[in-house]
Amino acid sequence: MLAKTKLQVLVPRLSFTRQLSVTRISLNTKQHTQIPPINTNISSQSKSNSNRSTWTSAALFLFGSLVGASYVSYKVAGNPPSFLFPQSSITPLNEVIPPQYGDPTEAIAEITKLLGPEKVTNTKSDLDQHSDTYWSTHHATASQRPDLVVFPETTEEVSQVLKICHKFKVPVVPFTGGTSLEGHFIPTRQGICVDLTRMQNIVKLHKDDLDVVVQSAVGWEDLRDYLDDYGLMFGPDPGPGACIGGMIGTSCSGTNAARYGTMRENVLGLTVVLADGTIIKTKQRPRKSSAGYNLTGLFIGSEGTLAWNCR
Ligand SMILES: Cc1cc2nc3c(=O)[nH]c(=O)nc-3n(C[C@H](O)[C@H](O)[C@H](O)COP(=O)(O)OP(=O)(O)OC[C@H]3O[C@@H](n4cnc5c(N)ncnc54)[C@H](O)[C@@H]3O)c2cc1C
Question: How far is the CA of 195 from the centre of ligand 1 (A)?
């Protein structure tokens, strides 16, 4: 056992000594070589030539890589591939993939259960009335009828209805006064018409601040009569029977527009419901505010395609 242990210790010592001696020898040889023999000279010259050509190739390769990389990054920055991000911020209509709609049967069942039978209808006269109007310059075809008309009474109910329609991919159209003239509310994809006419409360008048909070189906004539008692007035005056919701939807004008502006100049802020049922408030009442995106302005005139105003 002892002998074995000694041997194990000795072996590394031996190899260490050998390494040292080899090193020493090679150092000595270099120091003492004043004039190398001819043969050695030739081989070292060819060695240095080959070294030089290796370096030249490496430098060329590096330079080529740099030029190539710069060119590729220039190309990518100037014309980025579509998998990185879209080519432009505007997609032409003919390149847009049309939405795929779902079967409305299940949505109708869920909405009827949610609102109760007194807030839904599918009688022929109701479906016709929510598809077309005598005044319109465009008329609905026989098949352009909604499958159901629903009458929510609160913003929360509108949100619930939209959540269900979003879940089943059912097309929806909002409706208030029905006086718009260019086929605005024709249900070209059928689906569900959401009639907001039961939301017709004047919520609060702030006389000193010269603003009033109203629901979507307050008619402009009713608002005019109400404000008259306070010595106030509301400017926009479109077709008889038009309501605030649709007036915001179309950004209507009227005979007073030249003096008092269109709907766009008269709306301070909105409570809207988005397509997936999310409720958002675009702004508080104070006029002295400049914060953030002008979402109010974005939604006014969007004809129910971006959001539905409820208040
Ligand atoms: C005789 C006559 C005169 C008219 N004169 C004028 C005029 O001078 N100036 C003018 O601008 N217009 C005028 N109009 C057109 C019409 O009155 C306006 O377009 C009015 O703004 C429509 O309001 P409404 O409540 O009837 O909306 P609707 O016809 O019910 O709906 C209009 C659009 O808004 C959408 N919508 C409805 N409710 C909402 C909501 N809550 N949120 C989001 N979108 C909604 C609908 O889907 C539709 O696309 C006139 C019409 C008639 C018949």
Answer: 13
Q: Is 311 in the pocket of ligand 1 (CB under 6 A)?
A: no
Q: Is the pLDDT of residue 5 over 50?
A: no
Percent of the chain past pLDDT 70, that is, above it, reads 80
CATH of 202-309, one of 3.40.50.970, 1.10.3720.10, 3.30.465.10, 1.10.287.380: 3.30.465.10
pTM of the model: 0.76
pLDDT at 134 over 50: yes
- Fold of the 105-195 domain: 3.30.43
User: Please, which residues bridge with residue 204 across strands?
Assistant: 213
Whether 216 is in the pocket of ligand 1, judged by its Cβ within 6 Å, is: yes
Domain boundaries, the chain: 105-195, 202-309
Quote the distance between the C-alpha of residue 66 and its chain's center. 38
Which of 96-100, 117-121, 192-196, 282-286 is the least confident region?
96-100
The verdict on the CB of residue 299 being under 6 Å from ligand 1 is no
Does the pLDDT of residue 7 top 90, yes or no? no
